[in-house]
């Protein structure tokens, strides 16, 4: 019998699915003669060189092509849809489903591709594509919260075999969503029968628009708003979402038009909206557009939307990076005259942005200009600058700044020296750390617990065990309290070198601050953490 199969060029599949077997009634099957039983139950045969294998290879090739195009144009500002159109691959349900499954962990890219495919001629989404897309958008709690209403729309389109949701149905879905997921304020108003000015459905609409904008489908979001504008009145948050969406895809002209429309209908953009947009433009290299928006914000904005210190910091750093120092100094004058002075975090952002761009001299000019305007840098400002230089291991510039502090009469603090010591150990230069330690003694700046911890930890790391043990003796003699994590770390280092006397002396000293029960709790917590890490 097997020879007959080979004669005709067929072979039975060893892994053919059970669902492909013919279905027979159990009674009739038992009544079948044994000689015919094999013939009836035999799985379907297929030729060696079948067309399905060729089609499968072609499908995999198309999936890979689409995957590469999507990944190459994954950024929000990239025109993914145009790139996909240029590929010219004919769409089928199997192809779309395979691509979606490749992006099962990238819900935004998957949904963007899904929307593009649904608008193509000669293709309509089938139930399987809808189901896969809904599964991707609701696979985690975060995704469910973000895309729940999108899933409701997709479910309607799947059940009614429609490529678009009618306005009346969309309004109904928004109302149902609002009723099911009311905010606490809306629940209170409903319970007390208080009439509110804003429609509850606007929150659901904003959720929907926000989900579309985060998937870079801002055009679709704006069209949807136009469709429901007559039944649902947009609020300031609606315009903010769309405005930020246009900033995300780097289309400032559309964003500015929307901003003007927002102001015309009586809504006031807040400074967070402006600042976020300016930051997005600057990161995209669109500094001129950011400057125009900043000027619009400064001259036409209200008190709520006036620039903050962070807004000024973003613009100043962007101008410095693009060698537009004249505009930078002019903007700095505006900032000071408006009374918007940088705080500690803003100073750090300003100086860090300049240093990372290689504009250290410009950072010094900034400090000098602030001093000329009547706001000389203090120890906090200098420490912000020094922190940036130390974190980036610019030792020469850090020492230069330290010398400048001494020259202008700004006495360094213990935090100043701690940053220098930490930098030297990270650079593998214990001699530099010792010089800083002696400089502290020379300047009369007492070392604190952090200084001792940095030195001891760094010396153990550099195999300078004797120096580390000497400093531990100082800790004990001075009666200093070490943080428990550092104490535990130092005990481990001492156990490695086998110095039992030092372990006993340090433990007896630290028992004044930490009781045995706390030590047991700490040890158990560390053990649980190590076990959980091994399990993962």
Helix content: over 70%
By DSSP (H or I, 4+ residues per run), the number of helices equals 30
Q: Choose one word for the global shape.
A: globular
Uncertain runs:
1-50
Report the sheet-strand fraction. Answer: under 5%
Mean pLDDT comes to 79
Number of strands: 2
Order of strands in the sheet with the most strands? 1-2
Q: Kindly name the structural category.
A: mainly alpha
- Report the span from N to C terminus: 54 Å
Please state the CA-atom Rg, rounded to the nearest Å.
Answer: 34 Å
Biggest sheet architecture: 2 strands, antiparallel
Q: Would you mind describing this structure in some detail?
A:
The protein has 536 residues and is mainly alpha-helical. The protein is built from 30 helices and two strands. It has helices spanning 2-7, 26-30, 34-41, 51-72, 80-87, 93-102, 107-118, 127-137, 141-160, 167-180, 184-191, 201-214, 218-228, 236-248, 252-264, 271-283, 287-300, 309-321, 325-337, 344-356, 360-372, 379-391, 395-407, 414-426, 430-443, 449-461, 465-478, 484-497, 500-510, 516-535; strands spanning 10-12, 45-47. It has a two-stranded antiparallel ribbon. The chain is globular and about 80 Å long. The two termini are 54 Å apart. The model is unreliable at 1-50 (pLDDT under 50).
Search tags:
536 residues; mainly alpha; disordered N terminus; 30 helices; two-stranded antiparallel ribbon; single chain
């Amino acid at each position: 019998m097997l020879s007959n199969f080979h004669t005709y060029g067929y072979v039975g599949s060893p892994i053919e699915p059970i669902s492909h077997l013919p279905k027979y009634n159990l009674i009739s099957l038992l009544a079948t003669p044994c000689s015919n039983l094999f013939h009836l139950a035999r799985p379907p045969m297929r030729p060696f060189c079948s067309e399905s294998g060729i089609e499968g290879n072609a499908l995999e090739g198309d999936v890979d092509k689409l995957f590469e195009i999507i990944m190459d144009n994954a950024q929000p500002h990239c025109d993914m849809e145009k790139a996909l159109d240029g590929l010219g691959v004919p769409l089928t349900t199997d192809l779309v489903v395979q691509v979606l499954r490749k992006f099962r962990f990238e819900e935004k890219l998957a949904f963007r591709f899904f929307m593009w495919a649904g608008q193509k001629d000669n293709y309509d989404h089938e139930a399987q594509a809808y189901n896969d897309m809904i599964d991707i958008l609701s696979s985690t709690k975060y995704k469910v919260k973000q895309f729940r209403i999108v899933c409701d729309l997709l479910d309607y389109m799947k059940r009614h075999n429609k490529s678009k949701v009618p306005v009346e149905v969309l309004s109904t879905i928004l109302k149902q969503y609002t009723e099911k997921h009311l905010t606490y304020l809306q629940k209170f108003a409903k319970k007390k029968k208080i009439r509110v000015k804003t429609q509850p459905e606007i929150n659901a609409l904003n959720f929907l628009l926000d989900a579309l904008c985060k998937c870079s489908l801002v055009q679709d979001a704006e069209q949807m708003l136009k469709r429901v504008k007559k039944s649902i009145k947009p609020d300031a948050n609606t315009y903010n979402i769309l405005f930020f969406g246009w900033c995300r895809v780097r289309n400032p002209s559309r964003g500015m038009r929307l901003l003007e429309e927002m102001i015309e209908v009586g809504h006031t953009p807040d400074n967070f909206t402006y600042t976020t947009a300016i930051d997005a433009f600057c990161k995209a290299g669109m500094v001129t557009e950011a400057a125009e928006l900043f000027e619009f914000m400064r001259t036409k904005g209200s008190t709520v939307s006036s620039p903050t210190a962070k807004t000024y910091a973003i613009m100043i750093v962007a101008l410095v990076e693009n060698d537009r120092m004249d505009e930078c100094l002019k903007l700095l004058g505006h900032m000071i005259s408006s009374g918007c002075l940088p705080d500690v975090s803003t100073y750090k952002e300003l100086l860090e942005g300049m240093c990372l761009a290689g504009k250290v001299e410009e950072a010094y000019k900034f400090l000098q200009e602030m001093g000329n305007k009547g706001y000389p840098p203090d120890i906090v400002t200098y420490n912000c600058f020094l922190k940036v230089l130390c974190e980036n291991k610019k030792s020469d510039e850090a020492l230069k700044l330290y010398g400048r502090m001494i020259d202008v009469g700004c006495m360094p603090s213990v935090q100043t020296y701690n940053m220098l010591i930490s930098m030297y150990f990270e650079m593998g230069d214990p001699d530099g750390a010792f010089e800083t330690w002696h400089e502290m003694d020379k300047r009369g700046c007492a070392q604190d617990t952090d200084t001792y911890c940095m030195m001891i930890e760094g010396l153990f790391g550099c195999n300078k065990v004797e120096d580390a043990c000497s400093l531990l003796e100082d800790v004990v003699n001075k009666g200093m309290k070490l943080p428990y994590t550092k104490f535990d770390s130092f005990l481990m280092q001492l156990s490695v070198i086998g110095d039992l006397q030092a372990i006993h002396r340090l433990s007896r000293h630290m028992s004044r601050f930490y009781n045995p029960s706390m030590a047991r709790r700490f040890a158990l917590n560390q053990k649980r953490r190590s076990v959980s890490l091994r399990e993962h």
